[in-house]
Each structure stands twice: as structure tokens, then as C-alpha cells.
Design brief:
With 281 residues, the chain is an all-alpha fold. It has 12 helices and no strands.
Length: 281
């Protein structure tokens, strides 16, 4: 029963925090640390990410399918060199974005693997060092997001996405692997706003770029799946999926009218509370 309750609670935390620019890994780690639970196993961590990955794929299914079909179509036309083959302008543009994302994912994935090893070396087995890193990263990224979102203009949308911007935003994901608490969505959204993309577009680009990275991580680590406790495992997937789906929808609606200020402030408060908790504990 305890493992089922843990699975539900961690699934809720993952579903809420994965898509907000506040770091899901930081919240999962902080929650287990405060509750004195054992560390989340790699297998269960992947289960939680599978749930939110499915949520992304379901929410953006139509857009994602159009991207993939357009990407394949543009490649076929280019290599077939057949003038009789043609697609719409929208499909051509979507095809370009698809290949932008693919191209940006490769260096981002490689850099993430390298920086992840660097992070493990720096943090080591010290829980205190890990919590301090999470707190400092949360505060720093919160302040950065606040000032970037406040000062930068809104000049571009998802439809204006180009290769250079996609590459910069995609590679920035690697920072989340290097520094605990940075947040993959947090850093990509911040860079998107720095490049003057509007808020809904910055979130959408962040989500699309995260799909191949998370999928690759799941595939690479699939051999480590431990189904000793199958009910908590699949319950974690289901809960994180369900909560994540709701959060994506709510977030996309919020960003049509509001900025990222509340998330930036939350990050700073979260980091400060972690440092206080560390001092008390």
C-alpha cells in the first residue's frame, strides 16, 4: 500500500511539474528528501517520464502527426527529384520545422550525456550538495526567467521558427542535465523568450524539442526497467499521464493572456525554502 501511495503522489508531482518551467526532477528529489523516502529508482523515474511523454504525444497528436508526415514528404520530394510531386506551403514549412527539431536533437542529446556525467562527478553521493545545487539553480533560473520574460519583446511565433533558433533552444536542454534544478522546460522557454518568441509558442517549441530527448532516454534505459512492483510502476505512468495532460492544457490557456512571472517567483521561493529546510534538517 505504501508503494501505491508513493506512486500516486510522485505521479501527481511529475505531471504538474514536468511541463511548468520549475523542474520536475528537482521537485521529485526534494519531496523524497523531505519525506525521508528512499531515492526514486531509475526504473520508476522513467515510468513517470513515460507518462508525461504520452501526455505530450496525445495533446499535440494532430500537430505532431502533421510535422512527421510533412518531414517525410519533403525528404521524399527532395531525394526523388520529381517535379510532379508537390505539397502545400504549410506542409513545406512544417517539414522544415520537423528537420530543424531532428537536427537540434542530435547535438543536444550528445551534450546532455556528457554534461550528465560532469554533474554526477560534481554532485557525487552528497545529498546536501545536491539539494544546494537544486536550490541555487532554482533561484538563479527563476530570476533569469523573470527578467528575460519581462524585458524581451514578442516578435515571433511558432510559425517563424528557423534553424538557428531551434538549434539554440534545443542545445540549451543540455543545461538541465548538467545542473540539477535547472529544468529542461525552464531553460528552453527562457531561451525562446530571449529570442523574442511569444509565450504560447515558447512553450510549444519547448515541448516539441523535449519529445525526442525524453523518448531517446526511455529507449536507452529501457533495459533497466524493473517490474518487481508492477502495480506502482504502471500506476505512476497513468497518474503522471493524466495530470500532465490537464497541466499542458491549462498552461497553454494561461499563456495566451499571462506571462511567466508567477513561475519565476515560485522558483525563487522554492529555492529559498529548500535552503532553509537544509539548514533546519
Amino acid at each position: 500500500m505504501d508503494k501505491i501511495i508513493e506512486s500516486i503522489l510522485l505521479g501527481i508531482i511529475q505531471g504538474i511539474t514536468e511541463f511548468l518551467p520549475i523542474s520536475s526532477s528537482a521537485h521529485l528529489r526534494a519531496f523524497t528528501w523531505i519525506c525521508n523516502w528512499t531515492d526514486i529508482s531509475e526504473s520508476f523515474d522513467l515510468a513517470l517520464h513515460i507518462g508525461t511523454l504520452i501526455a505530450l504525444c496525445v495533446f499535440f497528436f494532430k500537430d505532431g502527426l502533421f510535422l512527421i508526415k510533412s518531414g517525410i514528404s519533403t525528404a521524399v520530394i527532395k531525394f526523388a527529384n520529381n517535379s510532379k510531386l508537390s505539397i502545400s506551403d504549410d506542409a513545406k514549412h512544417a517539414g522544415k520545422i520537423f528537420w530543424y527539431i531532428v537536427a537540434a536533437t542530435i547535438p543536444a542529446g550528445i551534450l546532455s550525456l556528457v554534461l550528465d556525467k560532469v554533474s554526477e562527478t560534481i554532485v557525487g553521493d552528497s545529498v546536501n550538495v545536491e539539494i544546494i545545487c537544486i536550490a541555487v539553480a532554482s533561484i538563479f533560473m527563476g530570476l533569469l526567467l523573470y527578467f528575460v520574460d519581462k524585458k524581451c519583446k514578442v516578435e515571433k511565433s511558432y510559425d517563424n521558427l528557423n534553424f538557428k533558433d531551434t538549434l539554440l533552444i534545443g542545445i540549451s536542454q543540455a543545461l538541465a542535465a548538467a545542473f540539477p534544478g535547472v529544468s529542461r522546460s525552464g531553460v528552453t522557454i527562457t531561451i525562446s523568450r530571449l529570442l523574442n518568441y511569444d509565450r504560447p509558442s515558447s512553450a510549444k517549441v519547448s515541448f516539441f524539442l523535449s519529445i525526442p530527448i525524453i523518448l531517446a532516454a526511455v529507449i536507452v534505459k529501457a533495459k533497466n526497467f524493473d517490474l518487481t512492483y508492477p502495480i506502482p510502476f504502471f500506476l505512476g505512468i497513468f497518474v503522471s499521464f493524466l495530470v500532465g495532460l490537464v497541466v499542458i492544457k491549462v498552461l497553454m490557456e494561461i499563456l495566451k493572456k499571462h506571462d511567466y512571472k508567477v513561475f519565476a517567483i515560485y522558483r525563487v521561493v522554492f529555492g529559498i525554502l529548500l535552503l532553509i529546510a537544509l539548514g533546519i534538517k
